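Aim 2 progress update. The chain analyzed this quarter is reproduced below.
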Amino acid sequence: MKVLIATLIISAGWINGLAQIPLKIAKLKYQGGGDWYANKTALQNLITFCNKELGMTLATEEDVAEVGSPNLYDYPYLYMTGHGNVVFSMNEAQNLRNYLIGGGFLHVDDNYGMDKFVRIELKKVFPELELLELPFTHPIYHQKFDFPNGLPKIHEHDAKPAQGFGLFYEGRLVVFYSYECDLGNGWEDKRIHNDPEEKRVQALRMGANILSYCFTSY
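Predicted C-alpha cells:
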C-alpha cells in the first residue's frame, strides 16, 4: 500500500510541471480464457497522447500485472479489457480489493462480450457494492477535455448507448467501467480498425480524462 500511495503522489507532480521519473501503468491479466491481451497498441497510443497533451511523464510502454500479484501496488492505473470470460479466484479478488481500497484505480473497458462475466467477478471483489451509472456531470467527463454527454460512442454493436459505470468505495470511485463504447479500440493504431480520425481523437481525449481523474482524485 505504501508503494502505491507514494506512486500516486509522485504521479501528481506533472500537474505542477515537476520533473518526474516515468510512471508506469499496466494491463490487467486475468484467468478464464478471455482475451485480456486485446487492444495491443491501445495503451501505448494513449500514453503518447497523454504525455504530449497533458504533460504527463508516463513510461512509453505499459506493463502486465496479474490480478493476484503483489505488483499491483506498483501501478496507480490498471486497464482491463477483453471480449469473453473472466474468472477471479477468491484470493485474486481479495488482492484486487486490497489494491483498490489502498488507493488504486481499475478501468474496465468492455471490448464487446465481456459484460456478463465481469459483472459477476466484480461482485467477488466488492460484494457490498453495486455498479452505478455515472451522471454526465461527473468530473471524469470534465477534465481537460469536456464530454457533456458522457462517453463517446466509438463502435456500434447492438445500437445501445455508451455508458460509464462505477464502483464507489467510501465515496471514492475505484472502478470505472466503460460499456458499449469500445474506447480502447479507438486508442488502437488507425490501421487496425480504420476509424475516422474524429473518433480516434474522441477516444484518446476520453482516455486522457480517465487517467487525469485517476491521478488527481485520490
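The longest strand covers residues 172-179. The CA atoms of residues 3 and 165 lie 28 Å apart. These observations will guide the mutagenesis experiments scheduled for the next reporting period.
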